[in-house]
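Figure-free illustration: sequence to structure, shown twice.
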Amino acid sequence: MVSATLLHLTLASIEDKYYFAKTSKGPHIIRHSLLKQTFKLGYPLKLYCEAEGLYSPQINWYKNGVQLSNDHRTVIKTERFRHGVSSRLQLVLTRILDAGLYDCVARDDNGIHMREFRVDYKL
């Protein structure tokens, strides 16, 4: 019998509930950047996350619970491979406001797996 843990995520100020199935069928983050990062103001910040699963997961990035997307300062590049996906998040010309908690969330039909990165700046 498969046990499931109720996982609460606050995404874009809305509390969504997801079930994370502890089976080999759900996605698993297999490689990622260091969980504590420090960036120098004005220089790029790069985070990496790679996940695999039977149902080719997708990866989304969040900062302080708000989903990130590509814009003039945020670049997200995703590459698919046989049973998985790798994703790189890059913030160019970093500012003090870029410090915070970043989440890499791998999701497929069988559940989610996430990693949290604590990011701070140095002068």
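We now fold a second protein in the same way, so the two outputs can be compared directly.
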Amino acid sequence: MSTRISAFLLALTSIILLATRATAEPTSVELDGQLYGAQADDVGPIGGGEGYTRIVRSGDRTAATLDELLAALDDSKAGDVVFVPGDAEIDLTARIFIDKLVLKVPAGVTLASDRGAERADGGVSPGALLTSDALDTPVVIQPQGPGVRVSGIRLRGPNTKRYLDHHTRAREQFGKDYRQYYYKFPTSDGIVTRQDRLEVDNCEISGFAHAGVHLRAGVDHHVHHSFIHHCQYQGLGYGVCHDRASSTIERCLFDWNRHSIAGTGRPSCGYAARHNVELGESLSHCFDMHGGRDRGDGTNTAGTRIEIAHNTFRATRLPIKVRGVPEETCDVHHNWFVRHDSPEEAVSADERTDVHDNAYGEPAGRAAAGG
């Protein structure tokens, strides 16, 4: 086994153990009869896995190899489930590198494995692993129409590193024109869509330089009960990224990302982030919305509508940054900012961002709600 793979597996084992310990800690706090922070629901635990109630255990077609998976997707129609057994490991590296392969999921089709299911031997299924080690991985999974569901899959990309030196070198040598040099190093995306109503649930997604889930367009996307980590390439590095898209992101675990949730801030860009837990490591601020200054389009627009509610932030970095003015509003409420003691420490924003009724500090109950 190569040193690179061994190091990644060691890091992955460590982060899973950390996530297990972290979710055993309180994710919410009650102050004066009000609950702040993230809570699990009847569907399952925050981050999914064992205890998740919507695990897919079989399908209309079963595929344990890449060729079988491609054939199954090609033959599927709306309403079908393509199931990949939980012990399957499908390496797409060569086909992505040589053929620019993309797993194209037809409209209304579910691509699923059984992450968190109890196995016959008493163990727990990790979920099928789909992986690419090609640094230039433009997309692994791409919905071809609305209503696609990706469930119970482990999706692992090629780049878990920050590459701080590359970003610094580009900035120092090329100044405002740094992007031409910076983008000579390839990037990667996990799931990319322009279609409506993508659902990503009960997945573990990691190691993508640009984004684990890239919502380029579309409405009513739903990313929930998933564990998204190690998307932290400096300058990019997003867990879930939005362009002209809107989504609900809830009951996810985030760790070791640059921004766990981000948006370009263009009109129609927005998200509702609820009951998520930021576990503790973040290269930069955790939840983001770009403004017009970032795009250089002469506006100060930072998306259309944003809601950030009932999340728990354990990272020491700035939890929330809205880099402009939303077209409608950004409502920040009932979050627990564990490492921050005031609204000013927890949120950086301009006009039309309303920060109210949040809890600050640790131990639980030490700080009063407010702001």
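Summary for the second example: Residues 102 and 303 are 30 Å apart (CA to CA).
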